[in-house]
């Protein structure tokens, strides 16, 4: 017999998968409870509504995203800057390829954000965080001499948009050389790669 903590974890994991596969509207607490192996009334001990479960998952996903994009630039030098930048994209690509549910559920939250301001506000905060962190990273690259300072904000924004769209294309199942695409994007912003 599972303890309460294990049951709680299984509810969250199952909801994550079912919401991703079926969408929020077509997934009920009864479906989640059945998949977990508990009664529908028992699920209310953990989450008193589907909305609370959706909110909880959203907060957990947001925390994970924020942790991913919080970049430390102080240790970056001419020798490791390019590899660091490449690794950011490579890790995101690998994680999205491993977790087939992430983009699906994240798209559910994007749809929900069109109807509910609290989700839109949080998604905007996450996007701003990506742009700010990449801007800080690219400005550090200018400071150490590996990124040309011309149009540095545009270069920074381009990298954010490329990695974001790679995630969307992974969701479609289209098989492309995503790491190669990211590598080309990175090389295009580094000093000395520009065509005169």
From TrEMBL:
Top-level taxonomic group: Bacteria
Residues in HTH tetR-type domain copies: 5-65
GO molecular function annotation: DNA binding
One GO biological process term: negative regulation of DNA-templated transcription
Keywords, alphabetical: DNA-binding, Repressor, Transcription, Transcription regulation
Pfam families for this protein: TetR_N
DNA-binding residues (ranges): 28-47
Protein name: TetR/AcrR family transcriptional regulator
Organism: Cytobacillus praedii
């Amino acid at each position: 017999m599972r303890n309460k903590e294990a049951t709680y974890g299984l509810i969250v994991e199952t909801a994550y998968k079912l919401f991703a596969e079926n969408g929020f509207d077509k997934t009920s607490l009864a479906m989640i409870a059945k998949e977990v192996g508990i009664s529908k009334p028992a699920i209310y001990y953990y989450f008193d509504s589907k909305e609370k479960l959706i909110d909880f998952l959203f907060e957990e996903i947001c925390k994970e995203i924020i942790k991913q994009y919080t970049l430390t630039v102080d240790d970056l030098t001419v020798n490791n800057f390019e590899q660091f930048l490449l690794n950011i994209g490579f890790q995101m690509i690998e994680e999205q390829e491993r977790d087939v549910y992430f983009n699906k559920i994240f798209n559910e939250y994007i749809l929900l954000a069109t109807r509910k301001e609290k989700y839109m506000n949080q998604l905007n905060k996450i996007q701003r965080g990506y742009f700010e962190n990449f801007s800080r990273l690219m400005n550090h690259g200018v400071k150490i001499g590996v990124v040309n300072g011309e149009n540095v904000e545009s270069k920074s924004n381009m990298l954010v948009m490329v990695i974001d769209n790679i995630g969307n294309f992974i969701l479609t199942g289209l098989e492309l050389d995503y790491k190669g695409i990211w590598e080309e994007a990175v090389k295009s912003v580094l000093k000395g790669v520009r065509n005169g």
